[in-house]
Amino acid sequence: MGAAANSQSYKKHHQKAVLIDTHNDVLSSAVLDGKDISQRITEGHSDLDRFKEGGMDVQFFSVFTGPDARNKEGVYKDANEEIDSLESIVLRNTDRMLLARNYKQVKKGIQQKKLVALIGVEGGHMIEEDILKLEALYNRGMRYMTLTWNNSTNWASSAMDETLNPGKLKHKGLTGFGKQVVKRMNELGVIVDLSHTGEQTFYDAIATTTKPVLLSHSSVWNICPVFRNVKDDQIKAVAKNGGVICVNFYSGFISTAFDKRAEYLNGPGKKIIQDSLLVVTNDSVVMKTKWREYYREELSKVRPTIAELVDHIDYIVKLVGDDYAGIGADYDGVSSLPVGMEDVTTYPKITEELMKRGYSEKSIKKILGGNVLRVMKANFR
Ligand SMILES: [Zn+2]
Question: What is the model's pTM?
Answer without folding.
Answer: 0.95
